Amino acid sequence: MQDLQNTNQANSSGAALNLFLPAMSKALITSFSKKLIAWHGLHGRAGLPWQNNLDPYAVWVSEIMLQQTQVATVLERYPRFMKRFPTVKQLAAASMDEVMAEWAGLGYYSRARNLHACAVQVVERFAGKFPNDPVLLEQLKGIGRSTAGAIAAFAFHVRAPILDANVKRVLARIFAIEDPIEEKAVNDRLWNLAGELLPSQAKDMPTYTQALMDFGATWCTSRGPVCLSNNHQCPFSKDCQANLSDQVLILPRKRIKAKSPEFNCDMLLMRSGNWVLLQKRPSKAIWGGLWSLPESSWSARAGARTNDLQSQELFALTLPDSLAPQSLKTTEPLKRGPQIKHVFTHRRLWMQIWELSVAKPIEWGDADLQWVSLRQLGQYGLPQPIKVLLQGLSLIRDGV
Fold first, then answer.
1. Of 60, 173, 251, 373, which has the highest C-beta tally within 10 A?
2. pLDDT confidence of residue 352
3. Least confident of 24-38, 84-98, 147-161, 198-212
């Protein structure tokens, strides 16, 4: 059924493809998958812990973790995550804090929230078994069209295309797609082309999909493709329109991005002996669901804060109004700590840390504000810059 759907989609897209593919490209379509699979047999990556795995759960976790995360990092964290949550049912049964603690340091924390939500959906809607239809997979939380295609191809041998950033670059270069790839019309053309290039045999889908990923990640890279070196001969060197027209480093074209906005905020680092005050961030905020230091609202950066704050001022900025501790007994005056710059995908944040030591922890009456023992910090998901800060201040002990 799925192959029939793909065939119908391919037929309907053929006319559109003919409008922009030169004759040489049309001929390449019939040989593309064979060339790529042959290349993979000689140069593809091997031995990755998620390869050659027909378990859709394992495929899904690896695909989500590999989004916007370097392979070297995933190589370290993926086995640990799978050991902690070996099945989709165990992931669904875990608390969000457990998932966030295991994900801490990987960034893009909406992925972790979506993983948990998706696991719950799979258990509740599909009795703990991932569907093999890409259309159904795409309806699950956090699974886009390309990830759905990868799961279907790897775990179920379904003829479904993928189109991540690496694949877009490969196709834009080989087939000379010169318009910015962010444009919807261009993206639609790329999806049509990706569908046309699929191997005819479903059994070849896992190898082909892995080969396409590997080729974009290791050979047809953004800044150092092999065609610009003498190390290897690209299997598409005589077909690649970007190579033949000397546009390899020009394609794919991207829109010029505006400069990322910069913001300031104040953060309260309150300590009481071996305890530190943490606040759980709202689920839809940046670092959503993680535990961080209480912080003020962000303001557009016009330079670093030059004036010092008093304790009550800082409480008013960082703590809920009803919880500002008027009678808090401090053991030292409020101290200006380091200023930390953190770069997000679309913004930059400058965090001014303020350090305060108090005689004893205060009961806040708020589940999102907790005093956490230094020995238990490893059980909490912390944003990477906050984790680094606490480590630098020797707050994390016992090998955490």
1. 60
2. 95
3. 24-38
Catalytic: 63?
yes
Residues forming CATH 3.90.79.10 domain(s) in the chain: 262-392
State the CB neighbour count (10 A cutoff) for residue 211: 23
Catalytic residue among 63, 102, 196, 295: 63
pLDDT of residue 230: 80
Alpha-carbon span 149 to 210, nearest angstrom: 12
Residue 330 phi, psi dihedral angles, 5° rounding: -95, 150
SS3 132: coil
d(CA 274, CA 372): 8
Evaluated on CA atoms 31, 36, 37, 42, the torsion sign reads positive
Dist. CA 298–CA 266, nearest whole Å:
8
**Which option is the CATH number for 2-244: 1.10.340.30, 3.40.50.2000, 3.40.50.620, 3.30.70.260?**
1.10.340.30
C-alpha 36 chain-centroid distance? 26
Cα–Cα distance, 400 to 391 (Å, whole number): 9
Domain 262-392 fold is Nucleoside Triphosphate Pyrophosphohydrolase (3.90.79)
> pLDDT tens digits for 291-308?
999 999 999 998 777 788
Q: With contact defined as beta carbons under 8 Å apart, do 291 and 382 qualify?
A: yes
pTM: 0.79
